[in-house]
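>> Question from a student workshop board

For tomorrow's exercise we were told to take the sequence and the ligand below, predict the bound structure, and bring the output to class. My setup keeps failing. Could a helper post the expected result so I can at least see what it should look like? The ligand is 4AD.
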Amino acid sequence: MKRTKIKAALAATGPMDEIVIKGWVRTKRDSKGFSFLELNDGSGLLNIQAVVDHTPEIEAALARIGTGASVCVTGALVESPGKGQKWEIRGRGLEVLGEADQETFPLQKKRHSDEFLRTIAHLRPRTNKYGAMFRIRSELAQAIHKFFADKGFFYIHTPIITGSDCEGAGEMFRVTSLEPGSTESADKDFFGKPAQLTVSGQLSAEMFALSLGDVYTFGPTFRAENSNTPRHVAEFWMIEPEMAFADLADNMDLGEEMIKYLVTHILDNCPDDVDLFAKWVDKDLMPTLENILKEPFKRLPYTEAIDILKNAKKEFEYPVEWGMDLQTEHERFLCEEQFKKPVYVHDYPKVIKPFYMRLNDDGRTVAAMDCLVPRIGELIGGSQREERLDMLLARMQEMRLHEEDYWWYLDSRRFGTAPHAGFGMGFERMLMLVTGVANIRDVMPFPRTPNSLEF
Ligand code: 4AD
Ligand code: MG
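>> Workshop helper replied:
Here is what the output should look like for this input. Compare the format with yours to find the bug.
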């Protein structure tokens, strides 16, 4: 007989004479003549309870299992007399699939700290919190594809290995090849050419926007910045829409629509899992999410943002001056204290932004925007792109970028150039927003940070 997933069993519309459940034991309680097993198979947050009578075979199986063991229970699905659950299993058969030594199995019934669980990232998805996290992560990824598919955007796969530095920040990992059979780097380049791991798929996506209209990428990106913050990792996933015939306002509209869509989707589709975060992780989660949905986001020119920060009755660690890049403390002040909702800061000084952003008529700012959200700061960074060849070349010269390296990129401005705009959203930061989890290490299966290359 085929197994039924626990989530489906708990949603049954009537009792069943025969059911097979496979899962991991969360708890085992023995009574006189029978035992209770709480089982979870990862399909949902809720456990199913199995009640098994003490036959000799079942007693032999019970003696081998404790928290963490995997089992197969066969029996009937019956209405549960206990409160809080509609259905339970009356077990007739109990098979041990895999034992878990109680002396060494690290996940016991008590609550473990996030710091401890990071040291066993390979086992933490077996806990309630991380099971919920990774189900939400999966749902969020699907929702992103659905959002774009419904709007007629095409999904483009841009390369991971690249020869160009999109952001021009020099924070790239080098790719080398190994001698066959060796683990020592032979300092070999990519077939004789220097190559890196991509920091962004944007430049490639622009080529496709200027061909297919509306496109997006969604894939892993890499940053070799050695920063140890709760918001930065060396490997993260980024969603990058790019739209032809669009300007900065269209870009901000899309980002706002997308954030609201994703929050709504997760609230509608993951109620149990979100509830866990709202109850146990962040008491402020629901009000924050409702606030995001309620009103239009604030749109604030950078120059006005600087004035607000200068006049704020608050001591910042980094002094505020026109021309500076906003730090997380400034970003959070704007969206958490000043406006109490997401804020788009736009039209930043050109000197702090990459070469591809469109120069404004004032000659000193570019059509850039960052979307700042409560508790996180920057969630989205994007811009209208410089579509005018002469302006782009002048900017590249100013920044000492070599035209030859970008010949293909420049071709898009030579042949049928058009206004276009796009942005990048950090997938993990979006996940932090919808779960209230404060550390990016806790929204990724196996985070890559300066101290973590294990697993
Ligand atoms: O602002 P960033 O660097 O923008 C770009 O890479 C553009 N090329 C995107 C585009 O216009 N297509 O990164 C975009 C977003 C940030 O707002 C942030 O959410 C996330 O990516 N991000 C990181 N997330 C985790 N760890 C890091 N080290 C991140 N760096 C950026
Ligand atoms: Mg940015």
